[in-house]
């Protein structure tokens, strides 16, 4: 042990890997309100009623010098190097790892936060659909990866329900032509009705109001965007326009170098790759790197290159889209059962890498 006290706030993909990595040689306090690890990249499976994969945080940190403080952070005192919990306790640190991640962004759309289910409420969504007296329509808002996976899983798991996927742009529009074509074909095979170029302007009790007219729905799921926690900016860390904390090549805050920022909370720019997007694919490597850096197992700057993007499209199909190191699309895409099996292998690898 090197004697320093590291505090990690947030136990998502980046936070837990940073804590378990640093805990090999340092004393770590992990602050997070939950007892179980939330697998955000499997929330669509939870909504569809499949078995949840949520290991206990106690099991993930076992054998490391990590103490889990089950609490919520209220404030950060950067000058005093203290984290203030909502219950009033203050926890001092030598080094802080800020890993509070992101949550559903409602973007000020009237009625969205009050009436729609964000991805964090996947279990409640499952109960709502299963407990309905009669099937109706589920409208999934968002044509990105989260919206696509949710629409596919819901349509397959609850065939009596009509699933509509409503997107402000093109569904899967960032994929290669081959990849997007496969996504649309699989969604239609599952009976999903697709409405593109239909920006949502309001969520009502009857469903959605969009730029192309109303969409009737008994249940609305919001998967349009994610945003970082505002706590970084409120505490005084330097942030980019999107609210993510600006960091250097060792993932240290540009304004407060005693604070490392990882995962969706970090605006990290890597030479040859660009500014990293939010997601598990970047959060895990960031957390793993900071864990090694703080425990003295590396001194090199953070490096990262993209290799692929993947989707599950129900239980029997998927898509693995190869990309260049800067995340630009390659023409090659593996589809169908092959894509689904590769995605399953990746999910297992993610679970194994948390320690």
UniProtKB/TrEMBL annotation:
<keyword id="KW-0560">Oxidoreductase</keyword>
<keyword id="KW-0285">Flavoprotein</keyword>
<comment type="similarity">
    <text>Belongs to the NADH dehydrogenase family.</text>
</comment>
<keyword id="KW-0274">FAD</keyword>
<dbReference type="InterPro" id="IPR023753">
    <property type="entry name" value="FAD/NAD-binding_dom"/>
</dbReference>
<dbReference type="Pfam" id="PF07992">
    <property type="entry name" value="Pyr_redox_2"/>
</dbReference>
<dbReference type="InterPro" id="IPR051169">
    <property type="entry name" value="NADH-Q_oxidoreductase"/>
</dbReference>
<protein>
    <submittedName>
        <fullName>FAD-dependent oxidoreductase</fullName>
    </submittedName>
</protein>
<feature type="domain" description="FAD/NAD(P)-binding">
    <location>
        <begin position="5"/>
        <end position="266"/>
    </location>
</feature>
<dbReference type="InterPro" id="IPR036188">
    <property type="entry name" value="FAD/NAD-bd_sf"/>
</dbReference>
